[in-house]
Amino acid sequence: MESCFFTTISSSSSSSSPFSIFSIQGSSSNVGRKFSKSCMHPQLLSCQLPKPFLQLNGRPKYRLNQRRSAYLSSATYKETISAEKQGWDLGRFFKTLYFFNGPPSPAKIVEFIIEKLSGSSPEESEKKMGTSDYVLVVGATGGVGRRVVSNFRKKGLPVKALVRNEGKARKMLGPDIELIVGDITKESTLVAQYFKGVKKVINAASVIIGPKEGDTPDRAKYSQGVKFFEPEIKGDSPEMVEYIGMKNLINAVRESVGLRTGKLLFGFEDQLSKELDWGALDDVVMGGVSESTFQIDRTGGEGGKPTGLFKGIVSTANNGGFTSIRTKNFSSPVDLSAYDGFELRLKGDGCRYKLIVRTSTDWDTVGYTASFDTIGGQWQSIRLPFSSLRPVFRARTVSDALPFNPSNVVSFQLMFSKFEYDGKLNPTFVEGPFELPLSTIKAYIKDPITPRFVHVSSAGVTRPDRPGIDLSKQPPAVRLNKELDFVLTFKLKGEDLIRESGIPYTIVRPCALTEEPAGADLVFDQGDNITGKISREEIALICIAALESPYACDKTFEVKSVVPFSEPFTVDPENPPPEKDYNIYFQTLKDGITGKESLEQSAIAV
To answer: Which intervals hold domain NAD(P)-binding (predicted)?
Structure first.
């Protein structure tokens, strides 16, 4: 039995996009790349579709043996579906084209035909994009920040520095350092595009505190960290740097570094909702009679909550055998490079479906595809790692295609088909009615989750308002918190913004920072109780190690060396101390301990 294959318009978001051929996912032929005169249909140029069945995608209104179907359940649908040739719904075909592509342009049809006959292939339109993942260092010219940058560069790892003064940064960090010039206290300077490719952040930015009597140009009095000088705030206030600056920074990097709970791409979750413009793309585009639709059921989800519903009737008549729903191209590509895969929450029916993801706005292009099995009658979460997505073009794996690019996702498609890939059949395929409730599509971060945002705060942030504390035994910043414009209060507020952001984090609270070398034995503690000193070099190494440790994820801790203030710490260059395994320390940390517990208990008591 022969079927005809028709030209249609490219699924670009622009109505002036050139025409292209429907991408078929069920045949290895070059149908759609070249035209054949052996098959003609009134008003449309077509070509012959060979067997086996070619798999595709469409839009609603269903006709089977000239009979309309209402809503498709096995209880109401009683007609026997056969593979005989049946009436083809030309009107539904055109509505499918119009939904995805807008009104046709004869000039674009001719332009596209010429382009296709010239022999260009759809995968050639895929453009390779940069895949470098950077760590962003904020406060990169400060005492800790510049040491973080130096250690990354020694290891040959990609790093960017967010700085306010480009000249100062290049003089301090080197002429070839990649810089983002911006100021966390000025939201308008933190343009989202600047942070593309940033996957992790170490924030060492801090309000500037210096001696009232003045300091040397290189801030030697402040940096030494041992001898006390009467302090004062220099420059921007603690509120601007530690709180508003933190808020601006989180907003700037949130999309690029990712969220612990994932990114909602479609559906309904808690107080969030994200709807997409789905349309049916069924085998009507090649003469079949299967039909599907997608709707929102406001009470059909788990616990009576809303859900999407992909439903229809699938038939192998007229060499058909698939139904699908596909989104229009997104208004702008979605960057999911911070994540590791797609997670679908759905109520299964025991059948196998496909998720198809596209990274090109062209209609006739490679679809990155993964099949998944469902369990009948159960709500389930299905994870599809990006690494499992295979490049498929007309149901054939494209072995030389570029890898899936999660930074440029432009559309989704969900399919129920008789065919798998490369000539294989779907073992769960059954003709007739089907329903697949789909409540969410999300991008997820795989386990074990490691920190994406490491912040250098300060020991003592919870102490100024702690009841019963002996201020005479506390560091100057605790005693002088009010005189220093509530510096520790705003540091704590900044910490809370990180903890509430949803970004996987680590908060490091060093005791007094010194210019001594790294290498002393350390004390890690929680609850904000310890005092002491620690070198900036050691803190830089701790921050770098935290980025790779699941044990450090979502932890807040204080750290100091075991060396007393009164004793300087030195290292013999001929016999340096061994490198530390900071995981040994991270493994001792517990969730949920910040030192705020005593503040909250006192508030309850009052």
So the answer is: 139-254, 451-550
Q: Which residue has the tokens 């250098």?
A: 456
Pair 434, 256: CB distance under 8 Å: no
Q: Phi then psi for 356, rounded to 5 degrees?
A: -120, 125
> Over the stretch 275-333, which tens digit does the pLDDT of each residue have?
999 999 999 878 899 999 999 999 999 999 999 999 999 999 998 999 999 999 999 99
* Count of residues in the chain: 606
Of 196-205, 219-228, 550-559, 566-575, the least confident: 219-228
**How many domains does the chain contain in total?**
2
Residue 82 placed within a domain: no
What tokens appear for 464 in the block?
């100024």
488, 481 Cβ separation under 8 angstroms: yes
Residue 585: φ, ψ to 5°? -75, -45
Question: Higher model confidence: residue 209 or residue 46?
Answer: 209
Please say whether the beta carbons of 140 and 166 come within 8 A.
no
Integer Cα distance of 382 and 557 in angstroms: 35
Joined together, the tokens standing for residue 42 give: 């009134």
Residues 318 and 426 in one domain: yes
Which of 508, 568, 564 has the alpha carbon at shortest distance from 541? 508
For residue 315, report the phi and psi dihedrals to the nearest 5 degrees: -140, 145
Strand, helix or coil at 487? Answer: helix
Task: Tell me which residue of 482, 484, 472, 480 sits closest to 209, measured CA to CA.
Answer: 484
Residues 509, 369, single domain; the answer is no
Calculate the alpha carbon distances from 457 to 481, 493, 495 in Å: 15, 11, 8
